[in-house]
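Z., the sequence and structure:
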Amino acid sequence: MSLEHAILGFLNYEPMSGYDIKKIVDISVSHFWPAVQSQIYKTLARMEKEDWLTVETISQDPRPPRKVYHLTNSGRQELFRWLNEPQSASEVRLAWLIQIFFGGRMEDAQVIALLEHQLNLQRKKLIGFTSIPDETKQDMQDDDPRDKFFWMLTIDYGVSQAIAQVKWLETAINTIKQGEYHLPTIQA
């Protein structure tokens, strides 16, 4: 997936400003495709050059003008072309797993501290998934039930991934604490 296609998808619902796009990214897809404000604006500029969107400038005296982005027919065609294209598996890079890979060169307490840190991060992620802001829940009630299902399906994926990581991290921590250097799932 690319940020361009996420933006095309959001603009397919309605025209939005860059600020609006950032807000919706943060409450919807940031758990699997985070984006910072500067990335969004650079991407919008590229997309305008591709003729995937147009920009409407709205005066807001005394504040600076507001730019609202509209999807073009070309942008809509690109979105649906991409939506129908199977994606390859994404490579995941987890720096903390490189640390664990070389854990044999560290003290158990150091490795456990790294694992416990990741465990805390995953638990926080789970809390984030299960505490969707009330404003978002209210907005979703007004939306198409089928859209809502697919939006929530991605949240469910994130919850499942976080639960699996929590379980794995707890098992790894307990195994190291017990001084057992073998895993029940893999025999080396």
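Residues 56 and 68 are 5 Å apart (CA to CA). The first strand starts at residue 16 and ends at 17.

Let me know what you think.
H.
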